[in-house]
Amino acid sequence: MNLPDYASAPMISQIAEMLDDGLIIADNNGMILSVNDAAVRLLGQNLVGKYIVDVVTHDDITRIFAHVAEGRIVQEVVYQPTDMVSTEFALRIKPLDDNMVALLFLDMTLQRNLENVRRDFVANVSHELRSPLTSLSGFIETMINGDVTDDAMKLRFLKIMDEESKRMTRLIDDLLSLSRVEVYEHIIPENEVSLLATINAVRDTLVGKAEARNMQIIVRDNRLDKAKPARILGSYDELTEVFVNLVENAVKYGFEGSHIVIELTEPMPGQLQIDVINQGEGIAKQHLSRITERFYRVDKARSRQIGGTGLGLAIVKHILNRHRGSMDVASVPGESTIFTVTLPLI
Ligand SMILES: Nc1ncnc2c1ncn2[C@@H]1O[C@H](COP(=O)(O)OP(=O)(O)OP(=O)(O)O)[C@@H](O)[C@H]1O
Ligand SMILES: [Mg+2]
């Protein structure tokens, strides 16, 4: 940092207070002379007068500090405090004039987490695309080699190939949907949408899928004033996507022959609550907090088999964020699951 000549010591300490990164000034022996607020938040109170080795729990800190103080060189190390769960700092140590040393703690946790998320995401997408692709090219090769002569067999192969290519299309559509809602998440939609009409339309779309599993979809308007329109500011397409995902899940993961109930209530003035309730295997407690993560499926093999990519609830969550709404899930394993959506009414 090249400060102008007129930058006095009090001025520098005022600037240090603006930093989100912890800053410590120590003497050449490692005794702490001054700290900024961020360093106090990070390492605790009463730091002045203590020694660096006693507050920084890094195995090699004594050697590194001496190296900087004696060699007049800058060093940077990765520092993961033992008492702070999965937090990571870049600790930069720099010699100053007048036999002093500065230590700057740059919090890298968020950046590292984002990198992990990105890496996992790319790995997941590649994996999800690779399996249908491998299956497709296997079947194509078999057919090219002329190994399939029987017409019935040929048709069976083509049907599987059709299913696999549809799976890839679904995955790509979901990925595009997800990235679109992420981009526009900060913008509140402006159109007026009637939620009751949206939900009835969703029911009509999915009635066939439900019947195939011998299930019924029942919409119950339990608001006190049913004459009042259940209108919110929203995007019709996105809200449809929310309830298609939730009701489709209820159909997929519900017990065959059971009923799905979509219930509208107004728990407090200005708020609309929509519960999507199904009877089924449910979701064990340890999975509940994770099911809105991309690609998270409780039973990967089973969900894949019934055509799930694990992106549905991630899309739902982002759309609801955009609509300033929220979602909760409660489940009794072996019995039932309730997804509760809350949205602000106009
Ligand atoms: N009503 C439900 N009952 C039981 N489990 C559910 C229910 N809804 C969701 N889940 C679980 O949550 C997981 C994530 O759901 P999500 O909708 O994100 O993915 P998916 O349905 O597997 O795939 P996609 O929606 O992308 O086609 C599911 O794989 C399933 O394990
Ligand atoms: Mg789904």
TrEMBL record:
Top class in the EC scheme: transferase
**Name of this chain's protein:** histidine kinase
One MF term in GO for this entry?
A: phosphorelay sensor kinase activity
Q: Which compartment or compartments is the protein found in? A: Cell membrane
Which E.C. number(s) belong to this protein?
Answer: 2.7.13.3
Q: Which organism is it from?
A: Puniceispirillum marinum (strain IMCC1322)
- Tell me the ranges covered by the PAS domain, including all copies: 8-44
Q: Which SUPFAM superfamilies match?
A: ATPase domain of HSP90 chaperone/DNA topoisomerase II/histidine kinase, Homodimeric domain of signal transducing histidine kinase, PYP-like sensor domain (PAS domain)
Q: Which domain of life is it from?
A: Bacteria
Q: Which InterPro entries match?
A: BphY/WalK/GraS-like (IPR050351), HATPase_C_sf (IPR036890), HATPase_dom (IPR003594), His_kinase_dom (IPR005467), HisK_dim/P_dom (IPR003661), HisK_dim/P_sf (IPR036097), PAS (IPR000014), PAS-like_dom_sf (IPR035965)
Q: Which reaction does it catalyse?
A: ATP + protein L-histidine = ADP + protein N-phospho-L-histidine
Cleaved signal peptide residues? none
Provide the primary localization. membrane
Q: Does the keyword Membrane apply?
A: yes
Q: Which residues form the Histidine kinase domain?
A: 124-346
Which biological process annotations from GO are given for this protein?
A: cellular response to phosphate starvation
Which parts of the chain are coiled coil? none
Keywords, A to Z, come to: ATP-binding, Cell membrane, Kinase, Membrane, Nucleotide-binding, Phosphoprotein, Transferase, Two-component regulatory system
What Gene Ontology cellular-component terms does the record carry?
A: plasma membrane
Please give the start and end residues of each transmembrane region. Answer: none
